[in-house]
Amino acid sequence: MGDDRVELRFVMEEAGTPFTVRVEPPILATRKKERGRYGSVVTMPDAGASMRLLMWWLKSKLEAIRYGLVTAQEEFLANVAGTLQDGREVTIGQLIIPRLAQLPASDMAKIVRALPSGEPQ
User: Fold this and answer.
1) Which residues are paired to 31 by β-bridges?
2) Is residue 34 within a helix (H) or strand (E), and if so which, with residue range?
3) Residues 6+ apart with CB under 8 A from 62
4) DSSP annotation string for 51-102
5) CA–CA distance, 65 with 76 (Å, rounded to integer)
6) Mean pLDDT taken over the chain
7) Which of 2, 12, 98, 8 is nearest to 53 (CA)?
8) What is the pLDDT confidence band of residue 1, given thresholds at 50, 70 and 90?
9) What per-residue confidence (pLDDT) applies to 119?
10) Dihedral, CA atoms, 108, 19, 76, 74, nearest 10 degrees?
11) Mean pLDDT score, 59-67
């Protein structure tokens, strides 16, 4: 497979505050028999399956928001995009998830205990 990439970017507004959501879904691959070649199988991108995956993922998130299960900011938090001081655009997930993965379990427990109790502000 080549460097085929898809990016979905949109702006949502909640409580008067706009925020940009950026999603880069994976391009799924499928294996097919090569035409005219006995037993030869090739792996190729499956754009249709990739876009169906994106559609169902987005639909489930929007329905959760619509029915009040979560807020838009809660549902898309990892995908909220912003620009760093050096000009790079990153999502919150790209900043936080790798750092959390590097923490020992004991440090993660300390972080959880340090969180304020009660309702979030």
Assistant:
1) 43
2) none
3) none
4) HHHHHHHHHHHHHHHHTTSS-HHHHTGGGEEEE-TTS-EEEHHHHHHHHHHH
5) 10
6) 86
7) 8
8) very low
9) 57
10) 70
11) 96
Q: Look up tokens 């427990």; give the residue.
A: 109
Please tell me the distance from the alpha carbon of residue 108 to that of residue 84, in angstroms, as a whole number.
Answer: 25
Write down the pLDDT at residue 106.
78
pLDDT at 9 over 50: yes
How many residues are there in the chain? 121
Query: What are phi and psi for residue 53, nearest 5 degrees?
Result: -55, -50
Instruction: Give the Cα separation of 44 and 35 in Å (integer).
Output: 13
**DSSP assignment, residue 116?**
P
d(CA 88, CA 76): 20
Tens of pLDDT, residues 73-120: 999 999 999 999 999 999 999 998 888 888 887 777 777 777 776 555
